[in-house]
Amino acid sequence: CRLDLSQTDRYYESVYNPCEISRVYISNQCVSSATPTEEMNGAGNLMDFLDEPFPDVSTYEDFHTIDWLREKSRDTDRHRKITSKSKESIWELIKSLLDAWSGWVVMLLIGLLSGTLAGVIDLAVDWMTDLKEGVCLSAFWYSHEQCCWTSNETTFDDRDKCPQWQKWAELMTGHAEGAGAYVLNYFLYILWALLFSFLAVSLVRVFAPYACGSGIPEIKTILSGFIIRGYLGKWTLLIKTVTLVLAVSSGLSLGKEGPLVHVACCCGNLFCSLFSKYSKNEGKRRETLWRSFFAALVAAFTLRSINPFGNSRLVLFYVEYHTPWYMAELVPFILLGVFGGLWGTLFIRANIAWCRRRKTTQLGKYPVLEVIAVTGITAVLAYPNPYTRRSTSELISELFNDCGALESSQLCDYINNPNMSRPVDDIPDRPAGPGVYNALWQLALALIFKIVITIFTFGMKIPSGLFIPSMAVGAIAGRIVGIAVEQMAYHHHDWIIFKNWCRPGADCVTPGLYAMVGAAACLGGVTRMTVSLVVIMFELTGGLEYIVPLMAAAVTSKWVADAFGKEGIYESHIQLNGYPYLDVRDEFTHRTLATDVMRPRRNDPPLAVLTQDTTTVEDVETLIKDTDYNGFPVVVSRESERLIGFVQRRDLTLAIKNARQKQDGVVSSSVVYFTEDAPQLPASNPQPLKLRRILNLSPFTVTDHTPMETVVDIFRKLGLRQCLVTRSGRLLGIITKKDVLRHMAQMMNQDPESIMFN
Amino acid sequence: CRLDLSQTDRYYESVYNPCEISRVYISNQCVSSATPTEEMNGAGNLMDFLDEPFPDVSTYEDFHTIDWLREKSRDTDRHRKITSKSKESIWELIKSLLDAWSGWVVMLLIGLLSGTLAGVIDLAVDWMTDLKEGVCLSAFWYSHEQCCWTSNETTFDDRDKCPQWQKWAELMTGHAEGAGAYVLNYFLYILWALLFSFLAVSLVRVFAPYACGSGIPEIKTILSGFIIRGYLGKWTLLIKTVTLVLAVSSGLSLGKEGPLVHVACCCGNLFCSLFSKYSKNEGKRRETLWRSFFAALVAAFTLRSINPFGNSRLVLFYVEYHTPWYMAELVPFILLGVFGGLWGTLFIRANIAWCRRRKTTQLGKYPVLEVIAVTGITAVLAYPNPYTRRSTSELISELFNDCGALESSQLCDYINNPNMSRPVDDIPDRPAGPGVYNALWQLALALIFKIVITIFTFGMKIPSGLFIPSMAVGAIAGRIVGIAVEQMAYHHHDWIIFKNWCRPGADCVTPGLYAMVGAAACLGGVTRMTVSLVVIMFELTGGLEYIVPLMAAAVTSKWVADAFGKEGIYESHIQLNGYPYLDVRDEFTHRTLATDVMRPRRNDPPLAVLTQDTTTVEDVETLIKDTDYNGFPVVVSRESERLIGFVQRRDLTLAIKNARQKQDGVVSSSVVYFTEDAPQLPASNPQPLKLRRILNLSPFTVTDHTPMETVVDIFRKLGLRQCLVTRSGRLLGIITKKDVLRHMAQMMNQDPESIMFN
């Protein structure tokens, strides 16, 4: 799921909105060191231009990087205007208050809409997932659970067997049991799955190509200040919501959490466009998007906005364990951490390799076919195994759950000792029954299946999240380990390792906790979140007692995974697609200097610059025609090469067009000047054109001896687009964000051309 | 509790360690654009200096700001050296591994030591607090609780009455009851309190003045990159630990959480000094300190490292409520939020005003007297009221607790309806008994008392934390509101507001929850943490169900408080003491330009600069003698004023001293040059002195037109000490962090001279 960035090969970009600068002049007569007279004619000269602002000034082109400093100062400016105005009239005051509150309003709206969507998606997925197996006679739009909820079988294990709910075979042939019925159900299950996934992939293909994948890598890039038009658009929102439902219910090994985050960000973008405060300022917009990104990331796990069964829990998988954990258990927990790390590494390596192959070979040309094939294989292999047939989140919550007395599931088929009178809350460890051993086998198969299929699923041209599948892998592994430890502890109380903490007849080991820890470890291995992950796991399960086991596992898995490669799955995909993303985490430790990175290189043509008062309109126009740079430095003179400012291509074009129309006497041969006062010219010359107002007088500069380490830091922390390189006041060259990324790639022995070209 | 920063009136500070630069040269022959020959003689010339590095290079003076970029690049450099070395031998490899792990080791050690200290302090405080009332006959070092723990009275309400524990009066006179005994106990209580606080304040005065206050404002400043020698020293650690115990047990209205954070940071500093990786690099040291700061901030609330009664809860006040909360209850919750905000504002304003008075008037001259007086007043007023007599954290946990069936406390004196057979878990709302009404009065008095006395207590010359007192205020108010709502709901089921959620005989209202919410609100109002605060409250109470009430209250209180003033108590104290702290949160929105802030001002003497190849040793020495600047810009020539670099005062001094001793032929009249090659001089001249190696070739520059907003951003994000101001390559002036802070103060209409002068 990648973008074509080939059109971004421009490397001069401007820093300030020219209108800002001139306003600075006017607004600062009080404090500015410039003398009032300067101010006056400075202001006077450009009044005629100020009252007709450039139409598309301050907008960025697609696939370009925004300039954070500039956006920030523009917002400050706007804010200043509003506050000063608000004193004039009640109406203005109200408007300013509204403006101040718009942030909260936007967040509220985002919360409501994305929450609702999440809820709707939940319900739709439940229904369609069950639709693959059967239908509710009382009301076909009921899911299996809803359908039987109304029935009068109340005991727990009969709840999912009720007359209203009929499997397809039963409905069509009348026979609920038997090989024939089984085969028919199997067949229809596969058919539904193929139908759903086909619809999903075709919708994405036709209407919104950006709707595929989890979207998190792209959103991270966008948040870091990159423009991808339409990626958060209305169409993407609509299509992603629909196709997400289809994809999840088709039974593919993918989760809906990641895409939900994308959906939430689309909502954010939608509501941003309602308020000029955000729609007109890419920086502010991203602030808001970031909030909704984060909120959604947590919400995806915690809040179940629509909850038909009204259990008041805020958490997705609520667990309540009755036993504490013991120091000795840290060993298996840490082993699970190691497993998580290894799984993370394996998954990332394999998935990236597969995605690269998809991009480079014929495979990429037949996305629909690919999806169909994978869905088919998944359905065929998944149906026979009860643990892969059901939806993954159901599986996880069963694995997390402790075996109460009333549990009917296979996993809880323990041999109760007779003299235990009534089911009490904390049941002592018991020997496992045949059901448990049977379940262990099925879980082992499910584990292998999930591991393999997920690698091929993530990255197909449909909405696909990663959290739930990797959690499933971890939960399965964890549960298996948990049961193993539990049985060992039961059968070998006398072993040294158990003696001092597990007396006979006590409830020592909670397999569900192991599943939880395993899930955390695997999620950590894939995404490389540790602390935030553990917090999420709290939210997820409400288990505040288990911070130490979770932490231990999460940290271990991060260490193990980092040992094989620093990048998480999202960073890897960002790199694979060559997005211009400057990761805060990866340190640049090489000792190169700015002079090694700046353009022009030794054999390049010299830097394209303007002089402050000797260039003619014609020269400028040819320069614009011949080059495709986004901006040009302005120097005192070609001899001295002393930098005075930076001018943006678009502004230059507009200003000259403007002048040619409005100002008579401006011809090709008339001189363009950026100084305060017009240069002394012979009377014969045509009227010169003053362009100081579009000159950015504070371009960012570093000396050629600045270590690249520092330069990278500056780009990262100040969010620059480019900065100029000087030596003792002389302009030598320019470094853009892209040059920096290229250089970093080069230093990491990657192909520098991969950046933004794929 | 402030520092004398008067000696910091120097405003030129250097950016790079010169040795770095030269190493850059040598290590980059491969990539550097400089020609090999340059490299060689560049390297050659300075070899003789490199093998004898300057003794105290890269160290900062006291009360100076560190340069983050520089520290970072120094660490990178060190890291690079180690990794390259590690390939040489096994021993080096092991050393590099140790180095890589030292971070974890340090954190582990810090955790252990500060955890132990926290535990010891806990126990000591319990003991000494009870010592004010009586003594344990079986073992005088037992606290009241421990003393009676061993006794055989097991029923809950007899637990604190046991023969081994005797109040002083009983011990001395034999009479436990009666007015005489009461007066005697009262008297001794006051006496002990005075003794403790006197010891505390005198110890602080004599041994470690830095041990006073909560320490958080200073630590925030230190973490932001400021040097305060000894503030995290061994003595401070020792004295603060001891005096903290004394101060808390003296019964003053102060908490130990803030000071514990200071103690933890002292531990951090202590262990940092064991590893050169941290001791030699102020940046890395601060990273570590920041971790322990954060860890301690959470740990102060959560982990009870030594827990004599072995309840396995990780949290300080564990609460378990059996009822959910209802939408309608959000109204009182939000009202509590408003109260919290108002309390926060009132407290900050009053406390700051009082501290300013202390600083400016005679009052400040008699800290001991002040402490004694406040202690006396506190003790006299606190003893009669049971809710102020006991330790504040006990009070809070009682207020948080839900009234179980076995509760004996006054607050749970409800009238049980007879037909309730046995005490069940969730008790329906009941009418309040006389005890409750009595308690309400006492709580109201306690509330007023706490509010007033805390204002005068915080900021005295003893260790004093703020979290517990402000939580107490909130908890009291919350509990009062809670009981009020509960009784209303019980007596007026029919009212509209209760009808739809509170049936008769149901358990609708949980007063303890109100106390919790109130505590969060007040803490939020004072410290202005919201999210982090809510997280802490989870940790504090383990109540994950109550995120919405807590959030509502915390956010409301922040809004209300912010409406009266953006700064929390810590920021206010930082400002009061004029620490050089650049707060990330406060936006600089004024439209001033760099040229308005830079030195020299219009009427100042010109900038003190060196020229690259015309200054003589004598000139330099006079310049150093006449000025006290920390560094000097180097320009091509006084005419062109083109900036080529920046040289640090100390390095200059050392280099010349060095040269005069080692290099013969270097005399006062010999020329100092910073260029690659020696200038052409008549043969008669003495041998010139090359100083390029101490020249920082990449000083940070901005143009004079750069908006201050941007400059502030740069200082904040890059952690600069100063940056040079140029116009078209000409050096105009310099801006230091202090200038920036001064300017910001000025713009906020505060006295700019307050910065670092108090």
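The first strand of chain B starts at residue 134 and ends at 136.
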